[in-house]
Each structure stands twice: as C-alpha cells, then as structure tokens.
Amino acid sequence: MSSIFQAQYIEPAHKLKIDQNKLQNCRSNILNLVNVL
What pTM did the predictor assign? Predict the structure, then answer.
C-alpha cells in the first residue's frame, strides 16, 4: 500500500521537474534571441 502511494506521488513530481527544465530552456533560448537582436 505504502509503496504504491509513493509511486503515484513521485511520478507527478518527476514530471514537474521535467517541465521546469523545459521552461528553463525556453527562457534561456528567448534571452539568447534577445541578445542576438
């Protein structure tokens, strides 16, 4: 029971971390574009 709950709880957190990495990449890409312009 406990391990199943942990698995369900960890998965969204892992997904959130990936989304944050994507946001970070998007932000740095935009900053790079602005610097080029």
Answer: 0.53
Rounded CA-CA distance 5/27 in Å is 34
On the 0-12 / 13-18 / 19+ scale of CB atoms within 10 A, 34 is: exposed
In the block, residue with structure tokens 């997904």: 15
Hunting for tokens 């709950």 — which residue is that?
5
DSSP states along the chain: -HHHHHHHHHHHHHHHHHHHHHHHHHHHHHHHHHHH-
pLDDT tens for each residue of 2-13: 676 666 666 777
